[in-house]
């Protein structure tokens, strides 16, 4: 077994030497000399650590490095103490993390301070794979699942699978990710069958040496769906017993199994409310089942009702009354924003508000609402904005980060989840720059104080600075000036550009409804009979008087879910940040913005600005051609071209649609639309001009 | 008969009062008072003249106007003498032309000088309809034929047909057009059958009162195809007899029949060379057949050979040796440029060179190579450039206009032809602004010294100034400043913009080959086995060294077909106008332009300029919204949007294709391409994003 795994690990290394199709991710350093490793212990994990050092060592040739597994109070969890020639950790995994950090600093040139302690912000740093058992990936834009294939072929595992999972595990481990939910939150009932669990066991075995625990999404109604029971009522003794036995079965074959992720009573998924029980009843029953094995339950707060007048209020309304009722191994998993992973949302008000319950943020790495794997959108700026948002729940500085990482509330478990953007595409993520979002999630999960700019800097150095046939002749200073600086700027501006050309000023969820792609613009989408909260008009509320969702105290009163001073700040149009203006306010078309423009004009200028920002990105990228290998250069160039076309479609579609209400001209210093509204209204942008 | 025609004429007037779909063309003046018409004679044509005066009179209320048919030596042909209250002419048609001119001046506010003589530049001012007998129109972008319907339905003529033909005749007559070739130069053999000629008779009867003669395109092999003869050899007595009898038959039913238009030994059409005879043999035989009836033969010089190394030289090579051999009722019909109606060509060198033969220009009103009826391209600037080109054949000032209108050479017949852009579309031409090209052709055919700007001015005033519900409140000065001036400027710049974004600097015929649409870019088009001269590479000759067709004395020597000083001017790269640079020269990518840029950069900037010009047109048009009725405004706006998208495709396709040879970056102050070359290479732009 051990030998087989080492073989796989070696295979993973050799795969990294393939052509520049992006498969090597940020792991492309090749050692420039030898290193003398001293380590008293041995294990699979330590073997990996040693191999990484040997393969990637860029320090002094022949230098000595000591790896010491030894308890130290200052080191928490799988953290480590780093010096130029020593890594000390409480755990073997801590050593591996330290090795990755050391190699990263060698490659990026970042300073290594003697005895620097690096501890993780969250104990559990988890990818959520929305992978279906048939191999498709919900909201996946990088090919089919790396874990699951066509169900008809069963759950066979090949050496090729194991090799790929090893690469996956290595990549995750290198950025501190230590958990993976292997299947979609819209779970298949088959997930908990014994055949399926056998495959999970095989995956877990590959992931384990890299310190990655496996988790599963499960259907709350599993007892009746596959267990032969009449009910799945969480208070029913048979149901309780069934789950305990199932937990036992799982832990028997996967001793380090992480736990369950549950989407319950949400978008048609079954849950405890089907039986008149609360979320707490449901979550606690499952928590009791896994508790003996150290498992946790991640219970999602993504809930909304068809007839609610404001979907954004729902999670708070349902979960706040349950605060304090959950077991200590239940964590409520809350999306960053109260609607749904939009390009820009204020933070969900549950953060900081649930003081007696563990809460974990759920971020979306896959770009469901941010341009799929077509558009270059670096998400870390959005996550930084979110994590640093002050909830004021425990005074100034009660940031989302601090309310979730244990700094403020004594959570037994701290965790953070990111919905993965990984698939079978040769470059893993569909877009070369989407790798940066995977990378950034891991880095921010490890250290929620890192800035998005630092992470972009690191990622670019690791991903694009490796020498190849084209870059061998460049000096570092030239590369920094002509590649690193402009491309980092592009990344840093990319999310704001996407907001500008898609839904600026607090607009949200005005996506195309056709085929439910969430790709192009669709503020007009409203087929007969559809739920109101599934139409963009529910969110933008454009009419002859104005535009925006009134969430003030005179409207849906969503503002009241925020702690003062935010409540008043958002409630008052004079103080509400203009970034969130139309999220909280319905305003007349001629509302005067702070810059003196009227709202309609500002909307026009902002959409136009977004288009021009993408054009600028194209120029930036075209200029760095000498610094990038041919394949990645041209693939990114091609995607940026399409992004530019699609940004134009967003601008045209939204401005022409809203113009029907505003009845005002698009300011004449702005480029005119190039599409007719009626054309865009009947076109699916994901198919258009591929 | 006479009553029926008058009824149709009245019907035509009432049709003009329809909604603003553009059907009324430039004929929308409604009289503001009464006029007292004095006319000693009466006829169908004079009845029309009187009716036009009554319907459109904008002069002094109750004023007297005298219409006098009286010979006057100063008045030529169907010219007229115009005063504020009198029109004198040699012919009744001259009176009608004078009436249209008087009404036009009343409407545009142009001065009416006492006893001003207005004579036509060309005797025959002819539309060529490339209409097929099945109702389709070759290179027609305005719906099906107004003359021909589905052949299977036979040649029945309805009152609706006659009403439309009456409107057509009126529109033509109002701008001086006096002839129409009713069918495609790629003629059907059925054209000369008796059934078909009966329909021609019906059309001729409707057109006659408006002074419009009918002509037909005929297949040179008609004697064998429909006459039962073994040959169509023009020197064969049976063939000669057949044509004489056919002419007799035609003139028997259409006494004012104009004559034949022949496309012979061109693009697969039969001709005298099939029998070892010359163009002169063929043309003269036909000329003899129609001569007794006053008919003419228009013989096209549009010939080229599969294996020629320079298609542009062919017409001159074939026809110059025949100069002097043609009957006096043969006119050689020569396209303005030596290749084929390209966005920009130097004039065909036959003009002025054939000194002993009548030569007539053939212009293309339908926008085969200039954006179909999608793009707003005002062609009169191109025609003006052409007509004013100096051939130098008889010294300075031997312009194409003067070498063809009888000023220099004593042609018995002078004529000019324009390939029509007319179809069943409610606005006749597909694009509202394509009407301006029909209008301009007529006006220039009447007076080849008119400037394109004067004509644009006239046309805009006639077509857009009529009061409607939106414009009633505007004062003329406001309209002039805010509508006339900017829209005229748009028109005047439109052809140069089209050249810029499609084939600048002398590039030509680099159109998409897919489906033979001649719409989008296709410099790459080269399917296996195709004739070389049907591929764009034959014309652009791009390679690693440079781009352009070497037609200098060291190349194909096409320059030698031009009279000095043009020959030397074109031959020398230093003196060759840059507009024609790549027409005459193959130049290195880094060739230094007069502005200091290298050729590649100049190409990039010029394509980009073209795109930005269309964007500017969009702004211009959007600003005039208050001055235009809703339907025409939005239809033109929509077409401009597509033009902008398509200009972008042209720029991207050409620059990315040529960049493969130039290996140089697109200058970085230019917006980057938004399409990938391989996408455009497999896409038919006529279908894309309709």
Please outline the helices and strands.
The structure is a homodimer of 690-residue chains.
Chain A: H1 2-15, E1 35-39, H2 44-56, E2 63-69, E3 80-82, E4 86-89, H3 92-108, E5 116-118, E6 124-128, H4 159-174, E7 179-181, H5 194-207, E8 213-217, H6 222-225, H7 237-253, E9 259-262, H8 279-290, E10 296-300, H9 314-319, E11 330-335, E12 358-364, H10 380-387, H11 400-404, E13 415-419, H12 434-446, H13 452-464, H14 476-502, H15 537-540, E14 546-547, H16 566-571, H17 581-584, E15 587-588, H18 599-623, H19 630-662, H20 677-681
Parallel strand pairs in A: 1-2, 2-4, 6-7, 6-13, 7-8, 8-9, 9-10, 10-11, 11-12, 12-13
Antiparallel strand pairs in A: 3-4, 3-5, 14-15
Overview of the structural elements:
Two copies of one chain form a homodimer. Chain A is of the alpha/beta class and 690 residues long. Chain A folds into three domains: 31-118, Chitobiase, domain 2, CATH 3.30.379.10; 124-456, TIM Barrel; 504-549 and 586-688, Alpha-glucuronidase, C-terminal domain (Alpha-d-glucuronidase, C-terminal Domain, Alpha-Beta Complex), CATH 3.90.1330.10. Helix content of chain A is 37%, strand content 10%. In chain A, strands 6-7-8-9-10-11-12-13 form an eight-stranded parallel β-barrel. Chain A has a five-stranded mixed sheet with strand order 1-2-4-3-5, with helices on one face. In chain A, β9, α8 (279-290) and β10 form a beta-alpha-beta unit. In chain A, α4 (159-174) crosses α5 (194-207), α7 (237-253) crosses α8 and α12 packs across α13 (452-464). The longest helix of chain A is centred in the C-terminal third of the chain and has 33 residues, at 630-662. Chain A is globular and about 75 Å long. The two termini of chain A are 46 Å apart. Mean pLDDT of chain A is 94; it is low at 7-18 and 468-472. Chain A binds chain B through residues 615, 618-619, 622-623, 625, 638, 640-642, 644-645, 648, 665-666, 668, 671-676, 679, 688-690, and chain B through 615, 618-619, 622-623, 625, 638, 640-642, 644-645, 648, 665-666, 668, 671-676, 679, 688-690.
């Amino acid at each position: 077994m051990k030998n087989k795994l080492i073989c796989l690990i070696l295979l993973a290394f050799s795969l990294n030497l393939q052509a520049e199709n992006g498969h090597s991710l940020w792991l492309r350093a090749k050692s420039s000399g030898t290193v003398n490793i001293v380590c008293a212990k041995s294990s699979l994990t330590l073997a990996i650590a040693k191999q990484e050092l040997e393969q990637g060592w860029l320090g002094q040739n022949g230098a000595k490095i000591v790896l010491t597994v030894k308890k130290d109070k200052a080191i928490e969890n799988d953290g480590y103490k780093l010096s130029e020639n020593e890594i000390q950790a409480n755990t073997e995994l801590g050593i591996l993390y330290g090795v990755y950090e050391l190699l990263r600093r060698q490659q990026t040139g970042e300073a290594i301070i003697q005895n620097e302690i690096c501890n993780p912000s969250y104990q559990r740093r988890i990818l959520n794979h929305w992978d279906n058992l048939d191999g498709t990936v919900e909201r996946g834009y990088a090919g089919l699942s790396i874990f699951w294939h066509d169900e008809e072929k069963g759950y066979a595992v090949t050496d090729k699978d194991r090799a790929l999972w090893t690469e996956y595990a290595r990549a995750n481990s290198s950025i501190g990710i230590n958990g993976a939910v292997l299947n979609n939150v819209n779970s298949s009932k088959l997930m908990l069958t014994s055949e399926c669990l056998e495959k999970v066991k095989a995956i877990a075995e590959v992931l384990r040496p890299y310190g990655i625990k496996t988790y599963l999404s499960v259907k709350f109604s599993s007892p009746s769906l596959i267990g032969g029971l009449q009910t799945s009522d969480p208070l029913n003794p048979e149901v309780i017993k069934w789950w305990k036995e199932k937990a036992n079965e799982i832990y028997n074959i996967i001793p380090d199994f992480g736990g369950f992720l549950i989407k319950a009573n949400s978008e048609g998924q079954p849950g405890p409310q089907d039986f008149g029980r609360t979320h707490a009843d449901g979550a606690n029953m499952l928590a009791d089942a896994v508790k003996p094995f150290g498992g946790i339950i991640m219970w999602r707060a993504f809930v909304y009702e068809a007839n609610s007048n404001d979907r954004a209020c729902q999670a708070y309304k349902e979960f706040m009354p349950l605060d304090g009722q959950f077991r200590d191994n239940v964590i409520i998993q809350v999306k960053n924003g109260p609607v749904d992973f939009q390009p820009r949302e204020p933070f969900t008000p549950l953060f900081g508000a649930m003081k007696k319950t563990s809460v974990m943020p759920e971020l979306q790495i896959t770009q469901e609402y941010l341009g799929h794997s077509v558009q270059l959108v670096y998400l870390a700026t959005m996550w930084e904005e979110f994590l640093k948002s002050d909830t004021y729940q425990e005074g100034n500085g009660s940031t989302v980060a601090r309310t979730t990482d244990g700094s403020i509330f004594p959570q037994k478990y701290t965790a953070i989840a990111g919905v993965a953007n990984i698939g079978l595409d040769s470059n893993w993520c569909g877009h070369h720059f989407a790798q940066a979002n995977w990378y950034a999630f891991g880095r921010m999960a490890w250290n929620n104080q890192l800035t998005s700019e630092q992470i972009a800097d690191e990622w670019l150095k690791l991903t694009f600075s490796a020498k190849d046939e084209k870059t061998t002749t460049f000096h570092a200073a030239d590369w920094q000036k002509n590649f690193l600086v402009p491309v980092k700027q592009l990344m840093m501006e990319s999310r704001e550009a996407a907001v500008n050309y898609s839904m600026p000023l607090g607009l949200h969820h005005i996506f195309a409804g056709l085929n439910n792609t969430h790709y192009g613009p669709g503020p007009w989408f409203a087929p007969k009979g559809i739920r109101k909260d599934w139409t963009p008009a529910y969110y933008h509320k454009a009419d002859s008087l104005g535009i925006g969702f009134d969430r003030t105290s005179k409207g849906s009163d969503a503002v009241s879910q925020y702690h003062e001073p935010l409540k008043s700040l958002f409630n008052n149009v004079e103080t509400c940040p203009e970034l969130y203006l139309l999220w909280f306010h319905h305003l007349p078309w001629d509302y005067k913005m702070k810059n003196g423009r009227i709202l309609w004009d500002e909307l026009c200028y902002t959409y136009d600005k977004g288009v021009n920002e993408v054009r600028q990105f194209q120029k930036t990228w075209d200029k760095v051609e000498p610094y990038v290998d041919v394949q990645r250069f041209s693939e990114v160039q091609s995607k940026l071209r399409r992004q530019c076309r699609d940004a134009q479609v967003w601008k045209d579609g939204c401005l022409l649609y809203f113009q029907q209400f505003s009845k005002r001209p698009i300011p004449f210093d702005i480029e005119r639309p190039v599409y007719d509204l009626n054309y865009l209204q009947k076109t699916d942008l994901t198919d258009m001009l591929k």
